[in-house]
Amino acid sequence: MPERKGVQSHVLLKRLRDTLAEQAQGQARLDKITHLIADSMEAEVCSIYLRRDERTLELCATEGLNPEAVHQTRMRVGQGLVGKIADKAHPFATANAPDAPGFRYMPETGEEIYSSFVGVPIQRVGEVLGVLVVQNKVAREYTEDEIYALEVVAMVIAEMTELGAFTAEGQQAMAMPHQRTFFAQGQSAQEGVAEGHVLLHEPHIVIANPVADDPETEKQRLTDAITELRAEIDRMLSADQLAAGGEHREVLEAYKMFANDRGWRERMEQSIASGLAAEVAVERDQSNTRTRMERVQDPYLRERLHDLDDLSNRLLRILTGRNGNGSTDIPEDAILVARNIGPAELLDYGKKLKGVVLEEGSVASHAAIVARALAIPLVVQAARITREALNNDYILVDGDEGVAHLRPEPNVATAFHEKVAMREQAAEEYGTLRDLPATSTDGINIRLEMNAGLMADLPSLKGSGAEGVGLYRTELQFLLRNTVPRRSDLSERYARVMDAAGELPVCFRTLDIGSDKVLPYMKKFDEPNPAMGWRAIRLGLDRPGVMRLQFQSLIRAAKGRPLKIMFPMIAQFDEFREARDRFYDQLEKEKARRHLTPSHIQIGAMLETPSLAFAPDQFFDMADFISIGGNDLKQFFFAADRENEKVRRRYDTLNVSYLTFIEQIAARCDRFNTPVSFCGEDAGRPVEALAFAAMGLRILSMRPASIGPVKRLIRAVSLSETKQVIDDARATGQQSVRPALESWLKQIDAPYR
Ligand code: PEP
Ligand code: MG
After folding, report:
1. What's the pTM?
2. CATH says 215-319 is which class?
3. Fold of the domain spanning 7-162
4. Pocket residues for ligand 1 (CB within 6 Å)?
5. CATH superfamily of this structure's domain 182-203+330-410
6. Alpha-carbon separation of residue 481 from 315, 347, 369, 409 (angstroms)
7. Listed residues: CB within 5 A of ion ligand 2
8. What are the residues whose beta carbons fall under 8 Å from the beta carbon of 321, sequence distance 6 or more?
């Protein structure tokens, strides 16, 4: 890093601080700043362009250009020299602006007579809020020191912009930041709607005094904060039970490395020496990190830059005295807004949240699994939401559409309220169906069960009217912890699940890890195609210890009650036979240890690969039941990754090939009298559920919230007529039976949406 004198920035900042201390309204303040910078830099022009919206920059103040152009001249981000600086988030200087590539002449500003140009982004934690420009008539090169001084001043302007220092009553063009309505189009990770107020997971830090009064004091504050940060990390490392290693520890070690990094500290100290307060110095470095983060492709490097970003956040919280966890003041109608969140943290907030909006995250993430268990609407991939939202902002979350409306217009709020009212009305209607069977008008009964995986799910068992737990995903408890659970903890937990279910059956699926479900303490294997890799039963058979642990815990939890278990991702008969044998071996051992054994045992297989549908007859004889894991089965049937947005929705579940396949599985199981259910997400979608029932499935397992809508539709139609509609559509060579089925349901006025 080149040695910079920093004198000019220091002087400039001191003058700036005096100016900011004067009483002045928004526009007058901006005008004074441009005047001051032009004067200090001996330049004819100084202009400030601020972002009006995502794509537009507006000339908001100028010294030297035509004053009439203020609030009139606008440009797109990426357009002209100013737009390019905003786009690239990088300074640009030239002695001959009109010849610079991208130069765009704006006659209304009268800038044609200025030859030299230097512009720096006005940015705050990686977000470009505007551009600061200085121009001279004579052709001159701007020194590195001058550019640096401008960058430092731009940081202060950014902080002031964030504080709303340049806004004033009635000045529309300078709308206060965080007051405009903001709409985020993300993706739906859990349906449902919620209205409430923002709770930021990482509180937004606003710095009231960006210019340092005394650099020595600021340097000391930084030193103290870094010392505290290091102590904090050491505490976390020693509290972490995982002395032997693991991902979680790796992250902490990376934190520690950065916290001790001299380069990081020196960069911040240099910013302080140039006149910035310690907080702004941290933010300046964080901004650069985020800019780098956006360009880096390598996943490992990106992770490390993320670590550095997190560390800056921690340091900022220490510096601003907000290091406590703000969980005490969770508003009653809290909607959590975060860049990303881990499953354990989300579970800590638990039912206190009405909704969650994440800037990153994915539909298949662990946080999404938890949100589903808690039935909290979740929107992921909501770009910019953490930058736009402030604590307590009014927000509407539409988990059905995957959108969030921050500070919405009244008409948007009205439309939203109508949607909420409709959903409430429907929920009331489902309540009245709770104790009624899902029997079609032609008398066929479909058993509806629920999927679960967390203790938080179990209260829904009675409330939803489910007839049992058709799929209990045991891996969730493993995913939420930093260490392998102990056998006693596991068996106690399984016992609590069985207690909660009472007479109703619970089908425990043994660990399904690997692929998208990576345990925090398991070494990650770089597999070219993890969904088809070393996962589920394959991993279970190769690592017998974990499977044994689960078998023992389940047998002991049952304490003489019936026990129902199934194995995930069985692709061939031998895998099932082997896993089943191991269970019975364990059962014998438990008997020998004088543990009470289950009163009745059922062992089933999940049919998640097409191959199992064609297994030998003996498999169908041996399996006590089969459960179709449609999420996986569909991805393998169509060779379309269930997590890849580009292909995820490409193939319809009601595609005739897939439906016919389901029909054949149902028929084959029927021939062997092997009960078969469907427990993938599609079972919870009313039209899909109806089609499966028409194809011969009699047991469907779904999220608790789906039971009402599915039951309502099944009770309203005849399955033989449904089958007829499907058969007709198949006979005419259609790709999917959906259009025919939906138009028929519409015609008979069935509640299918
Ligand atoms: C499935 O694949 O349909 C299934 C239920 O298992 P999971 O979604 O947990 O992979
Ligand atoms: Mg699966």
Report:
1. 0.70
2. mainly alpha
3. Beta-Lactamase (3.30.450)
4. 471, 473, 512, 608, 629-632, 679-680
5. Phosphohistidine domain (3.50.30.10)
6. 26, 11, 14, 42
7. 608, 629, 632
8. none
